[in-house]
TrEMBL record, chain A:
<keyword id="KW-0067">ATP-binding</keyword>
<dbReference type="GO" id="GO:0005524">
    <property type="term" value="F:ATP binding"/>
</dbReference>
<dbReference type="InterPro" id="IPR003439">
    <property type="entry name" value="ABC_transporter-like_ATP-bd"/>
</dbReference>
<keyword id="KW-0547">Nucleotide-binding</keyword>
<dbReference type="InterPro" id="IPR003593">
    <property type="entry name" value="AAA+_ATPase"/>
</dbReference>
<dbReference type="Pfam" id="PF00005">
    <property type="entry name" value="ABC_tran"/>
</dbReference>
<feature type="domain" description="ABC transporter">
    <location>
        <begin position="27"/>
        <end position="258"/>
    </location>
</feature>
<dbReference type="InterPro" id="IPR050166">
    <property type="entry name" value="ABC_transporter_ATP-bind"/>
</dbReference>
<keyword id="KW-0813">Transport</keyword>
TrEMBL record, chain B:
<keyword id="KW-0813">Transport</keyword>
<dbReference type="GO" id="GO:0005886">
    <property type="term" value="C:plasma membrane"/>
</dbReference>
<dbReference type="InterPro" id="IPR035906">
    <property type="entry name" value="MetI-like_sf"/>
</dbReference>
<feature type="transmembrane region" description="Helical">
    <location>
        <begin position="12"/>
        <end position="31"/>
    </location>
</feature>
<feature type="transmembrane region" description="Helical">
    <location>
        <begin position="176"/>
        <end position="199"/>
    </location>
</feature>
<feature type="domain" description="ABC transmembrane type-1">
    <location>
        <begin position="57"/>
        <end position="237"/>
    </location>
</feature>
<feature type="transmembrane region" description="Helical">
    <location>
        <begin position="92"/>
        <end position="117"/>
    </location>
</feature>
<keyword id="KW-1003">Cell membrane</keyword>
<keyword id="KW-0812">Transmembrane</keyword>
Length: 283, 253
């Protein structure tokens, strides 16, 4: 896949082919490393991570717990400075720059003093986008994710799963094009989870936003993604890059196909190996 | 309605119990009225003097209602300033703490020397009493906003001012109100002390008059009025809090 994109890039540079200029990737992470120092102990969290999200691509990251996935999101979002490496979006360098991405944190982190509707609208409000039309749209979407009747409710009145859906909507309705989703479905029960997966799949295939998605669930990653990056244990680095060949639009039935099961087995094995490795190095 | 009653009856019972004990003690041990009047004495005195006391009550109420908002506002402004400009916090926070070691009653004569007997020294005294709890509680509230929400706002591109108005200020409200409630209980007291400085009406002035005449029962009437005024002010602030912080999950106790 990476070869393929490189070929595309080289063709853009030849003169005369200006009509078919492929847009630069929505996100390009190059050689990111990060270490934290706490009480004079240096913990390396990310080691030379490079990955890419092309325009309108759905890309997932899977990896053992604590391997720096959330930290990578913080770096992409400009919250933290990397020790090395660069972040570019749509061809321009944005390392350390904030406000460029739409983000769903691992914990819902809804604002308790805002109603659900106002919570969902905050990203646009921060960016100074006019709110009248957005409000209308928010109501429409709240109904779509099963939160109608809760527009004026405060977050503490919602169940954990409902809060997560609201946090997801907040990311979806943000004005930024690139979405970073940090385990959006982790607090949901299995049934709601698969429902939300199906819903996200449909939604994404309709709208085609560029998405970078963190998950622990391999099946979820396979169902949704164009590409999956498998991370090693801490310090996190890209172990494998897997392109997912299933055509779009995808239906949930592909989870029963032999190719799917084969990929799932492969990925699960890699994950298990990493988990065991990090367990033995710690123990 | 039922739940307010449920909250109300235990302190009511306690108060009635105390008053009964007081009444019994006074009559059993034959305490002289000029040393300790019984509750019924106080009520009788109150009824006999109601119109006369009313003028003084109104004067104190007026002073409180001017001084308390000013004191609260000064506390809020100091908190915001010290929060938004970290160097002012480093410079002035120790001074702020030190200022509380100066007893306000000791300042009263000085204020008279500087500002005379008018309204100004009284307002300044109430402000000195009221600003501190508000300032300290608000500052700690502003500094304690949730880290994950802060991260979210930063990644969404929020600037310092947006973080302040959309995150720090709302999350400081519960703490801010606990400061304002303390100030509300101090405010009436501050007004009474201010009237001791020099006034021609007000509960403080009334107390001075009755003290010189050994009218202990009337002193108690004045104390009851001070307590009632404080309670009413406190209740109004508590109601305001309930409305402004309605988003907070109510703890079941
Ligand atoms: N601000 C910080 N200071 C010090 N250490 C940190 C900080 N942020 C993260 N870490 C450390 O970095 C490591 C990676 O954390 P991170 O949250 O990125 O993991 P993760 O891959 O998202 O894990 P999970 O799947 O459990 O969410 C952890 O060991 C954590 O302790
Ligand atoms: Mg994480």
């Amino acid at each position: 896949m990476s070869e393929e994109t490189q070929i595309q890039h080289s063709t853009t540079e030849t003169p005369g082919s200006s009509q078919a200029v492929p847009a630069p990737p929505a996100l390009e992470v190059k050689g990111i490393s990060k270490a934290y120092t706490e009480r004079r102990r240096v913990t390396s969290v990310l080691n030379n991570v490079s990955l890419k999200v092309e325009q309108q691509e759905f890309v997932s990251i899977v990896g053992p717990s604590g391997c720096g996935k959330s930290t990578l999101f913080h770096i992409i979002g400009g919250l933290e400075q990397p020790d090395a490496g660069t972040i570019s979006m749509n061809g321009s360098l944005v390392t350390g720059q904030r406000g460029e991405i739409s983000y769903m944190p691992q914990q819902p982190a809804l604002f308790p003093w805002r109603t659900i509707e106002d919570n969902v609208l905050i990203a646009g409000e921060i960016k100074g986008v006019p709110q009248d039309q957005a409000r209308e749209e928010a109501r429409h979407w709240l109904a779509k994710v099963g939160l109608s009747g809760f527009e004026r409710a405060y977050p503490h009145m919602l169940s954990g799963g409902m809060q997560q859906r609201a946090a997801f909507l907040r990311a979806l309705l943000a004005p930024q094009e690139l979405m970073l989703l940090d385990e959006p479905f982790s607090a949901l029960d299995a049934l709601t989870r698969s429902e939300m997966q199906r819903w996200l799949l449909e939604l994404w295939e309709e709208n085609r936003r560029s998405v970078l998605f963190i998950t622990h669930n391999i099946e979820e990653a396979l169902l949704l993604s164009n590409r999956i990056y498998v991370f090693s244990g801490r310090p996190g680095s890209v172990l494998h890059t897997v392109d997912i060949p299933f055509p779009r639009p995808r239906r949930e039935e592909i989870t029963d196909s032999p190719e799917f099961l084969l990929l799932k087995r492969q990925l699960s094995q890699w994950m298990r190996e990493e988990q065991e490795k990090s367990a033995t190095t710690k123990g | 309605m039922r739940s307010t009653w449920k909250q109300l009856w235990p302190p009511l019972v306690a108060v009635i119990f105390l008053l009964t004990g007081w009444q019994l003690a006074v009559s059993l041990f034959h305490v002289e009225a000029w040393i300790l009047p019984s509750p019924t004495d106080i009520i009788r005195e109150f009824n006999a003097n109601a119109t006369g006391i009313w003028v003084h009550t109104l004067a104190t109420l007026r002073l409180t209602l001017i001084g308390f908002p000013i004191g609260t506002a000064v506390g809020l402004i100091i908190a915001l300033l010290l929060h938004l400009l970290p160097w002012t916090r480093r410079a002035f926070y120790p001074l702020l703490i030190l200022s509380q070691n100066v007893p306000s009653i000791a300042l009263a004569p000085l204020l008279v020397i500087w500002f005379g007997f008018g309204l100004l020294p009284k307002i300044i005294l109430i402000t000195l009493v009221c600003f501190f709890p508000v300032a300290v509680a608000t500052m700690s509230g502003l500094a304690q906003s949730d880290g994950i929400m802060l991260n979210y706002m930063k990644m969404a591109g929020a600037g310092k001012w947006q973080i302040f108005t959309k995150l720090e200020l709302p999350s400081s409200l519960p703490s801010l109100f606990s400061g304002v409630k303390i100030s509300a209980t101090y405010a009436v007291m501050g007004a009474v002390v201010a009237e001791w400085i020099g006034a021609d009406k007000g509960i403080g002035y009334y107390m001075l008059l009755q003290k010189s005449a050994y009218h202990t029962d009337r002193m108690f009437v004045a104390i009851v009025i001070i307590v009632l005024l404080s309670l009413v002010l406190f209740a109004i602030i508590a109601l305001l809090e309930k409305w402004l912080v309605r988003w907070k999950p109510r703890r079941n106790s």
